[in-house]
Specification:
Helices cover 40% and strands 20% of the residues. It has 425 residues and is α/β, with parallel strands linked by helices. Helix 11 links the parallel strand 5 and strand 6. Helix 5 (70-100) crosses helix 7 (146-156) and helix 7 packs antiparallel against helix 13. The protein starts with a helix and ends with a strand. The relative contact order is 0.13. It binds S-adenosylmethionine. Residues 141, 144, 149, 152, 156, 164, 193-195, 199, 216-218, 244-246, 265-266, 268 line the site of S-adenosylmethionine. The site of S-adenosylmethionine has 19 residues, from helix 7.
Length: 425
């Protein structure tokens, strides 16, 4: 039998592993979900067992008793949360596979290209500078490592997260009309920030692309996704592009220049400030000819409670998504962030019309890296993501400024989300 102390020691050991302290020294590379769960000391849990018995268990408690302080209980709750989300992610993955009826032994391989932007600087240097600045910040794309990409998939099916569902309802209703307006059959469908490529296959029957080009910074996640997708759609040539397009959008030469349809759903453009969004849209424009188009989804301004709940859901999945960023930053920048010392915040900034995601220090804490450190006082925050909300008019104006002309706009009954089609002005 484990005593309370034995259990807490075993728990601490595993929790430290979960926080990447060991992986920091000699990083194993968990690739499959099973490997990730094993890495976390967890067993794979079926979707049914998640539904009937609740979240996957935290490390076994043979004695059944835990003598833990409030802080340790907090950690156990966090652990259970991570376990739950990995299990939930399995359920989502299984659902996606069964939905697509994926044949696993088909021989086709997609083409995959990993590029880095020519003017990109050392991410570690960049990250340490952001953390050291008086108003500490971490760029939003560091949310998307392998675990972050999976957590985002779970977020999209949460009751509080309306954007994905609302956008899907717009597609379900208007896709035939959208395809007719742009008329881009037999071209290249370029999916910007494709993530798990869940949305684009639904467009294939309408857009009938010759090439499908998913682009994403979460390289390993994208590689696995596009490999699966190529097996399911062998008639479409797939070119996966792993790249950071925040400073420079590079579309490789293998992608045909004729009839390009840029697809940027999910309101991801909202992660850029309006001026960054303007330069990003100009880059998209520069990669598009007169026979091309852009389809882009945006989240519309609405009541603050709905907005804040979407980014701070009751199950704590978005909180884990935000906190997981610290583990990713530890790996890249050599920092020693302790996620348990931070809490997630999501606040609507009405002046700038944006949701701000933040990580707030629970108490005074010092973050160290090989040649520096930054002290945070209790309550001090790190800015991790913006999500700008537009009105139909303000977004149309943004497109115009970037040299793009709106040829169609579709929205839902509540006017919560909008999808634009635009071409060269
Ligand atoms: C909000 S998710 C949207 C995923 C999917 N398109 C959807 O609509 O559900 C944003 C996606 O953009 C990717 N991303 C974020 N910043 C990026 C960057 N700078 N370069 C390339 N991809 C990026 C992320 O990895 C993530 O998959």
């Amino acid at each position: 039998m484990f005593g309370g102390n034995d259990f807490m020691n075993a728990f601490r050991l595993r929790w430290n592993q979960a926080l990447g302290r060991e992986t920091f020294a000699s990083p194993p590379a968990p690739v499959t979900l099973r490997e990730q769960l094993t890495h976390f000391g967890l067993k794979k849990q079926s979707a049914r067992s998640v539904a009937t018995r609740g979240p996957a268990a935290a490390p076994a408690t043979p004695s059944g008793t835990i003598c833990a302080s409030a802080a340790e209980n907090d950690r156990i709750a966090n652990w259970r949360c991570v376990a739950f989300m990995l299990a939930a992610s399995t359920a989502v993955e299984k659902h996606a596979k069964s939905r697509h009826n994926c044949p696993t032994d088909a021989p086709v391989r997609p083409y995959f290209i990993q590029t880095s932007s020519p003017d990109s600087c050392d991410p570690a240097v960049d990250l340490r500078a952001g953390i050291s600045s008086p108003e500490a910040r971490i760029p939003a794309w560091y949310l998307y490592d392998e675990i972050g990409s999976r957590l985002f998939d779970v977020i999209t099916v949460l009751p509080d997260y309306y954007p994905t569902r609302t956008e899907a309802a717009i597609f379900a209703r208007h896709l035939p009309e959208m395809a007719k307006v742009t008329d881009l059959e037999n071209g290249s469908l370029i999916d910007l920030g494709a993530g798990s490529c869940d949305k684009a296959p639904g467009l294939f029957p309408f857009v009938k692309p010759r090439q499908y080009v998913p682009v994403d910074i979460s390289v390993e996640h994208l590689r696995a996704t596009v490999t699966r997708l190529q097996r399911e759609h062998q008639d479409v040539e797939m070119i996966g592009v792993g790249t950071d397009f925040s400073n420079n959008l590079v579309i490789p030469g293998q992608v045909r220049t004729e009839r390009r349809l840029f697809f940027y759903p999910g309101s991801s453009i909202g992660n850029f400030t309006p001026s960054e969004a303007n330069s990003f849209l100009q880059q998209v424009r520069s990669q598009m000819r007169k026979d091309g188009a852009l389809w882009i989804g945006i989240d519309l301004v609405k009541d603050h409670t709905t907005l804040e709940r979407a980014y701070d859901d009751v199950l704590g999945v978005t909180a884990a998504f935000n906190l997981n960023m610290l583990l990713n930053v530890n790996r890249i920048a050599g920092t020693n962030f302790e996620p348990a010392h931070w809490q997630h915040r999501a606040l609507f900034n009405a002046d700038d019309s944006r949701i701000e995601m933040l990580l707030e220090a629970k108490a005074k804490t010092v973050v160290r890296w090989p040649d520096g450190e930054r002290s945070f006082s209790a309550g001090e925050r790190i800015h991790t993501e913006n999500s700008y909300k537009y009105t139909p008019d303000s977004f149309r104006a943004l497109l115009e400024q970037a040299g793009l002309r709106t040829i169609g706009m579709w929205t839902d009954e509540r006017q919560w989300f909008a999808f634009f089609a635009a071409v060269l002005a």
